[in-house]
Specification:
alpha+beta, four-stranded antiparallel sheet, 5 helices, 4 strands
């Protein structure tokens, strides 16, 4: 995807929506002195150009019973396994991110488990059962912050 360039109104809209994706377009329009239709049209264009790729409702995993967050580095036995392993990982609901990486791991995933016993079950019975060479697991004690990338129009 080619790099996008934005005018000041685009940047203001993006800042507003990344702070709170549920901000009504009319509220954004009033804040920046434009019509609601102008904001709506800009957002639609940003979506069509794949700048905005959706909106999400973030849930605190611990409030729904997932107290363990882990990152797992996956070493494939054979690089030709990549697509099959990714397809299988996508079927495990607790796996929330999957990355094709450089460095020592072939695949790097993030997952949530109810507790350490559940994590062990996921690793032994679902992830390592995919015929991998091996895995390395890191447990996150706490997510300190998460944010969107900074938005600017610099070259």
């Amino acid at each position: 995807m080619a790099r996008q360039f934005f005018d000041n109104l685009d940047l203001k809209i993006l800042h507003s929506l990344t702070a709170n994706a549920r901000t009504p377009y009319l509220e954004i329009a009033r804040e920046y002195g434009v019509s609601g239709a102008a904001v709506h049209q800009r957002v639609q264009r940003l979506m069509q150009n794949h700048v905005i790729i959706g909106s999400e409702c973030r849930i605190d995993p611990s409030t729904v019973g997932y107290d363990t967050c882990a990152y797992v580095g996956i070493f494939l036995r054979d690089p030709s396994q990549f697509n099959d392993v990714v397809d299988a990982l996508e079927k495990i609901p607790e796996v929330v991110e999957c990355h094709f990486t450089t460095g020592q791991y072939d695949i790097f995933i993030k997952l949530y488990a109810r507790n350490n016993d559940h994590l062990l079950h996921l690793l032994q019975n679902q992830i390592q059962a995919l015929g991998l060479a091996r895995t390395e697991t890191l447990i996150s004690f706490k997510e300190v912050f998460k944010r969107q990338v900074p938005i600017n129009n610099d070259k």
